[in-house]
Amino acid sequence: MALQPLGDRILVKPLSEEETTKSGIVLPDTVDKEKKAEGEILGIGDGEDIKKLGLKEGDKVLFGKYSGEDVEYEEDELKFLKYDEILAVVK
């Protein structure tokens, strides 16, 4: 990837939203869907605080629904998050 986060920032690709509910109901495109709070790490900065978290590219993480900065790069929706906006690593 040509985008490299600086300092204590992480580049995350939010996971796609489900189009059906757990009970099998298909949601039309007109329904307002909440932003997903889970994503895959695409890049990690070289700041001291981010190194302490022990994250690596490919890890799946949870973050606040409205945290970070949304960017569009090569038709992908991505997020730049600060190290303290990462809530957990999904294992």
State the main characteristics.
mainly beta, six-stranded antiparallel beta sheet, 1 helix, 6 strands
Shape: globular
Strand content: 35-45%
Task: Assign the CATH architecture of the domain at 9-15 and 35-90.
Answer: Roll
Helix content: under 10%
* pLDDT < 50 runs, ≥5 residues: none
How do the strands line up in the largest sheet?
4-5-1-2-3-6
CATH-assigned homologous superfamily of the domain at 9-15 and 35-90: GroES chaperonin
Distance between the termini: 24 Å
Along the chain, the helix and strand elements come as EEHEEEE
Total strands = 6
- CATH domain class of the domain at 9-15 and 35-90: Mainly Beta
What structural category arises from helix and sheet content? mainly beta
Query: Could you tell me the mean pLDDT?
Result: 86
CATH fold name of the domain at 9-15 and 35-90? 10 Kd Chaperonin, Protein Cpn10, Chain O
Account of the protein in words:
This protein is mainly beta and 91 residues long. It has a domain at 9-15 and 35-90: GroES chaperonin (10 Kd Chaperonin, Protein Cpn10, Chain O), CATH 2.30.33.40. The chain contains one helix and six strands. The chain has one helix at 48-52; strands spanning 9-14, 38-44, 60-63, 69-73, 76-82, 86-90. A hairpin with a 2-residue loop joins strand 4 and strand 5 (76-82). It starts with 8 loop residues before the first strand and ends with a strand.
